[in-house]
């Protein structure tokens, strides 16, 4: 609050700016994550994508990759198969 007063801006504006910068950060490596996912025939999950990005010299967390994948609606085929097996009647 003291920082907002000294800059003479409202708290609402400060929080609004924080949200917009987070949205931009999610899309920073989205194209690279999408190409790795498609190149793997939609079978890579967050762990394998993270390893592939590390091989390229990019250090990001699995949670970040999961957020990007969720925003792009990317679901690995393997996880879909596991969910189908778990829902099948015994």
* Spatial separation of the terminal alpha carbons: 57 Å
> What is the 3D shape?
elongated
Mean pLDDT: 83
Strand content: under 5%
Poorly predicted regions are none
Radius of gyration: 19 Å
- Secondary structure: helix percent: over 70%
- The number of helices is 6
Question: H/E element string?
Answer: HHHHHH
Number of strands: 0
What structural class should be given to the helix and strand makeup? mainly alpha
Biggest β-sheet strands, sense, barrel: none
Q: What can you tell me about this protein's structure?
A:
By secondary structure, the chain is mainly α. 70% of the residues lie in helices and 0% in strands. Helix 4 packs across helix 5. The model has no long low-confidence stretch (mean pLDDT 83).
Write the layout of secondary structure elements.
Elements: H1 2-7, H2 11-26, H3 30-39, H4 46-55, H5 62-71, H6 77-87
Helix pairs in contact: 4-5
Using brief descriptors, characterize the structure shown:
90 residues, mainly alpha, 6 helices
In a nutshell, what does this entry contain?
With 90 residues, the chain is mainly alpha-helical. The chain contains six helices and no strands. It has helices at 2-7, 11-26, 30-39, 46-55, 62-71, 77-87.
């Amino acid at each position: 609050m003291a920082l907002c007063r000294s800059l003479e801006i409202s708290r609402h504006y400060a929080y609004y700016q924080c949200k917009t910068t987070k949205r931009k950060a999610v899309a920073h490596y989205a194209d690279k994550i999408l190409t790795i996912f498609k190149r793997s025939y939609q079978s890579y999950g967050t762990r394998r994508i993270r390893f592939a990005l590390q091989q390229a010299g990019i250090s990001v967390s699995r949670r970040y990759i999961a957020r990007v994948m969720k925003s792009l609606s990317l679901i690995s085929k393997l996880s879909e198969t596991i969910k189908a097996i778990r829902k099948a009647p015994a």
